[in-house]
Protein 1
Amino acid sequence: LDTGEHGTISPLYTGYSNSSSGNDLDINCIKPNKGYSFIGWKLNNENDTLIAQYTKKPSFFNKPIIVASLVVGAIILSFGIWALISLMKSDNVKQPSDTYEIKTYLEGDSLLIKKINSLKSNWENQKPELSEKGRRILDIFGGRVKQNDSASYKVWENLLQSIHSVIAKRELINNLKFEDLKTQLYSPKQEVFRKAVEKIDSTQYEDVRKQLGNVSDLTLNQIADSIDSFLALNEKIKEHKEEVKAVIEKKPETSKPQESKILIPPKSEKTTNPPAQKPQVLKYNTDEIIEYLNGSDLRVDSLQKYKEIVGNNKNLKASIELCLKLWSLDGTSKNSYFWMNNQIDENINSQYSSLTSSKLKNFLNNICKKDNPTYFKGLPQSDKNKIKTLTQLREKAE
């Protein structure tokens, strides 16, 4: 027996056959090599040898229908997986947990630059990582450079742009650029500030800037309150000036001189000057001034103007002068918060009656509850130009 080129004989069989066709041999006696099939024996008459015959098995890829079916199936399966992953990613765009907090602050009335910069720094650290998102069918069999997930990145980028816009707006506010501020967009919670800025006439920009001073630590509503108070007081001063001007321009009525006669007094008679007119006393609204003294927007310039207006009203004038001392306290026995608080208590029914239920009295009570009655003795020189109102002073002291 000869096993031929593509197989081997099983060791259980002998190496010969009693038949010229090999029919007495089991077909399993020959183990064909991979890719071949044993089909029988062929006798070589020259040497009486049976030679094993083989045929090559047909290749799987020689069947076009099967190959085409598998290729189509692979494409459909790949597309299905790609579509499913894309859908899951698009429906599950991750939004960091502090997105709501940032949006709420940017649309609020505080907009303090330190807080905004802190939010900006935290948000920049949350930039979406690179990912293989949105691959096309043609990319399945080729390489693809990683890129930002478009949905997540867009959410991140849009909010970062909003932060930058609010920073620019706050810088305009800190620099009191009223003309530019009138062109900005504001949220509903910032409407009070927008309306206050709209009231400022271009001729008043410089005066309002001097009055407000440093506003970097104030909220938008606090700035708006200061603007409204200044404009209201300025309007009152303007009205009083117009009244004074009208009094000055008004001439006393005199009889017409006679044309035919000119009367010359005798030399012995002394000429007398007409009696001087009494100065016109400006009118003011006492209730309005008391309401101002009871508020938290006390400021040096406004108090000085009210002091001029009240004239000889001793009680109102005394209350205004006491308020003015706020900016010159140094903690000494007769120049401290404790002393000022006692002045109001001791004169509760006379001089300082208009201050008994004021925000100033409430501030003094809180300060004097502390162990040291001269706590926060006075403003450092560096703060005197920054702190303009009682509200700012209270924040600094408490």
Note: Residues 85 and 91 are 10 Å apart (CA to CA).
Protein 2
Amino acid sequence: MSEYDSKMSSSETLLDEFPKPSYDDWKSAAEGLLKGAPFDKKMHTKTVEGITLNPIYRKDSTEGLPYVGTYPGQVGSPRGAKAEGYLAASWDSLQEITVGDPVEFNRQLMEGLASGQTGVVVSPDLATSLCLDPREASIGDVGGCGLSLARYKGLEAALKGLVPEAVAIHVRPGCAMVPLASFLRIWVENYGTNLSQIRGGFHSDPIGHWVGAGSLPGAYDVLMDQVKVAWDLLADSLPQFGLIGCSGIPFHVAGGSAVDELALVLAEGVEYLRQLSKRGLEPGAVAGRMVFTFALGSNFFMEIAKIRAARIAWAQVQESFSIASPSPMRAIGRTGRFNKTVFDPYVNMLRTTTESFSGVLGGLEGLTIGAFDECVRESDAFSRRISRNTHTILGEECELNRVVDPAGGSWYLESLTNELVNEAWKRFQEIESAGGIVDAFRGGKVAEVCARSRAEQSKRLNQRRFSLIGTNVYANPAEELIEARLPDYEAEKDRAVAAMGDKDPPEWEGMDLQSLLEAAKKGASVGQFRKAFFPETDEKERVAALPHERLAEDFERLRKSAFRFEEETGKPPELFLVNLGPLRKHKIRADFTRGFFSSGGFSVIYPEGFDSPESAVAALTESGAKVAVVCGTDDQYGELFSAFAESIKASSPEVTVVLAGHPGENEEVFRKSGMDEFLWVKSDNFLLNRELLEKAGVTLNC
């Protein structure tokens, strides 16, 4: 026996001397510590997704799960699309560049590639996405949220110096699928040497554009025809390229949960399989060229499980289409915007770190990490560098690219993955029962699904059962907003119009692939492509877009209203704490109150404790505050509250008196004494702040 085996044997023998507690033993001990509180209520957690989390997971939590014994690279395995994981190649660093000018785009791209970035994301501006030339588009749409690509020469300028085979290339064309596919085909043929080695994806996803924008430039069926044309333009030239995109980002931004996002992305994929099958493509070929994009939210384990569950569910979809040779899911991700904040924006760096960590543990093939200040302004060199370096830290310092599926085998994650598959499949079937994702969107079902989850998340945020650091908890009253740095959209449009020149090439005849490519080479614009594919008489598809509002925006409007009040009056809205007695008596509730109202923009005056109503009234009057919160213990309230409240109302009847704590059976008595409101752990943080800000004289825009 080796020395190692001898030590292990001794250790095992030593452990055998101790009793092995069972789950029932642990539960009994936990119930004892709960002192009579119900175990299920205290120890089980229900998520926004409707999944109940157990307090502890055991080996038998995963018994019977069919995929637990699978390996990475197998179709239907949650453990990643590649058998080697990241050992052969790390995930792609797909950093977005949101400038409209192709020359500036290229400068930032080259800077990024020299500093660790390994992929490029080409997202056109709003004008290009709708096939509008700059001179046709509104100010704000040219250079808005992406790259202005009116002609092929714009793409050529944006990608100048790029070796196509050296990086991953992802193009999100919006509704400009045919012109951008033509531009891309020309570029790779001009600059590529081995097109079979070029990787990435051309994300034809008119459904994703539609749900986010609310309109299409033509009839839905015409857009689906163009998906097929874009496929034909690129399929043979770029055999490794994904050609269909299914994005969960619009559903995430609309407030959808992990279950909602997964279900709706599956429904998107099914719709594209059906539509392209009608247009002559085999479902197996289409499934193998789809690229799924997932938003990454703040629930670390839920996001890992969502990516893993997606692989299982997508295999089920392929089985339902009787695909003989199913393909592993191609999946990339982007840190979500829904939970990002304008106030305390540097916390966004921490959020994107945990989100990208979950994406890597989930085995994504590519990852975009949003800039910490993207909610406020265009990113600068510093914020772009922080995002890039997060990839580097995860890969090179944490060495996450040296292990295959580090999340595999976790009893919690395997169980959670199974729960997500089951719940998402039920939601997916709801969408299918509504006629599929297109009819569900037209009929309001998609909006309803996302709104339901958004309302639950807002409720939890307002009740402080969910925290956004620096927003509804630990807000910094002295914070100054970072400078908003937005493009000069009028100048953007002028530049883009000038770059196009005065003359368009002649309209072309013929709609075959070669004619389209020749037209693009001669300088045909996206607007000319639109006129060729979307006759002006075509019916436009318009449905109310899914909302794009971040979770924090209600609180941010409160804070901005408070800032505006301070600018107008010279002082912030103030709230005075009427602390009763010594510090040990009032501190807990006074600290809670200060944190609660700081999130609304109040400046909280926190004096030492008062021994008499007269001294409290004098200090309150001197402060000029319009809101007073009495803080103490329940015993003190029974003895002192009425006297303090009556004195405050007698001296300053316009002051709103709030009790810190629940009045219980004393509510009627306290209200007669002058209590206007009470604050306790279940109070709605947003609504109470809004109400008291108004009473303090603040004009609100929410």
Note: The radius of gyration is 29 Å.
Protein 3
Amino acid sequence: MQVNNEHNALSNLTALVDFSKLINSTLDLQFALNNLLLTCFGKFHTTRGIILLVDSNSGLLKVSAHKGISDNALENFEGIHPVDYLNNPVFNEFLINNRIELYQEIATSEGIKGILLLGKKLMGGSYSDNDIELVQTIVNIGASAIDNSLAVEKLKNVNRTLDAKVNQLSTLFDLSKEFSGILETETVVKLLVLSIIGQMMVSKYALVLFEDDDLNILDTKLKRTDIFDAAKKYNLREIKITTVAKTLESEYPEIYNLGVELAVPMQLSGKTRGLILLGKRITKLPYTKSDIDYLYSIASIAIISIENSRLFEEALEKQKMEKDLELARTIQQNLLPKKLPKSDNLEIVSYNNSARQVGGDYYDVIELNKRKTLFAIADVSGKGVQAALLVANLQAFIKTICKQEIEISEATNLINDLLSENTVMGSFITFFWGILNKETYEFSFVNAGHNPPLLIRNGEIIKLTKGGMILGVMETIVPYISETVKLQPNDTLVMFTDGVTEAMDTSENEYTDERLEELALKYAGKDAETTLKLLIDDVKLFTTGAEQSDDITLLIFKVK
């Protein structure tokens, strides 16, 4: 009997020495855990074993290795707290469900590291005191190796995290350089998407930008209509911090139901200007704090670049507009008469001041022959080059047709038909023109929807309204009607565009026709030059401090 005991003791000692050599031969954690289980299986003739280790993230005891027990049997075990685990009903239930006969703490000087769980022996019977003592010895030997393996595993995780961080920082640095040299939003978005997909390994994503009250989807692998529908239910601009799946599910369920696991705000000056929406990672790994920090950083860099792109595009558009306006201004000024005809019996004066946004005001005074002088004033709808070109067409038609000595109403019909063929939808011209016979002082005119000129005679105003509809809307259906008035000495005719009567003060009050008529009557006794100056001075006084919104044009002649 004593010989058997000595033999068993020697056998156990040999096994312990071999186990110690084997388990300490490597720092691989799974190798150590598997050999701990296999050694116990060999010594105690059992085929069921589990090792629980304290998880470094949650601090709970979780399954780290098992043999003889299916994965399905363990999948519902979420872990238990190592403190007072013996009194935890979950632990006791776990032992019963998995037919565990023996458990032994795996501990070091730093505290509990895990628990070894062994099932019943194949030959039946309970574990003896000697068995328990041997298990304790095996576990003690294994604890050191497991602790060393855990330390190495922790170090590896730290190194992996540092490597990932370095990689992310390197990517951020490279992206920062790339973004700084890109002034096209589309290119910025492509680069941003590629960097996110490459780093986060996601297949579902969306980049949205808030523009005034609109939502602009820059790029997406989600259904656009679903994003728009979900966004209508929330004020997504309120998302100021990175929002994870749990918060999305409770506060933004419509967004979460799209498969979005993470919402990263793109902020500029503390305001959320857009969002990066990300689905689950292909690797099934959760988004770590390091990932979230990286995404927030890249979002901040990207939104600055997108904003710079927008400002650059606006600057280009403004520059183009300024060029167009300058071209329009040049065209307009070249169309206006460089000097006015002089006459012994007439005083002719004019004034034109273009607004910052050039409109289509036009006037002209053309000596047809020694006896006749043509006066014209017009206002073309629209702004810029389009309006200036339409004015150029009008002037060309006037100068061509008036040389044919066609009756002025017939000439107006013809001008309207020509303009109708050459104007785009929505363009039109208000137009007034007349021909003065300087021998008879008969003034024949047609008013095509223009502000009626004011004929001031003997302290009264006669408005010249006879004519027809504005030019360029459609071909002539109802012919234009002309009228002839015989002018008298001291008669003054004031022609103007709506830029005069609709000029606004700082409170957006209009100058009005009534004010112009009152002053025109008041100054009618003066020479034409003085009358023009006084009228312009009054308009400038009225609009002091306000931006000029339309061209201001006046054409005045007075019969001596």
Note: Residues 129-180 form the longest helix (52 residues).
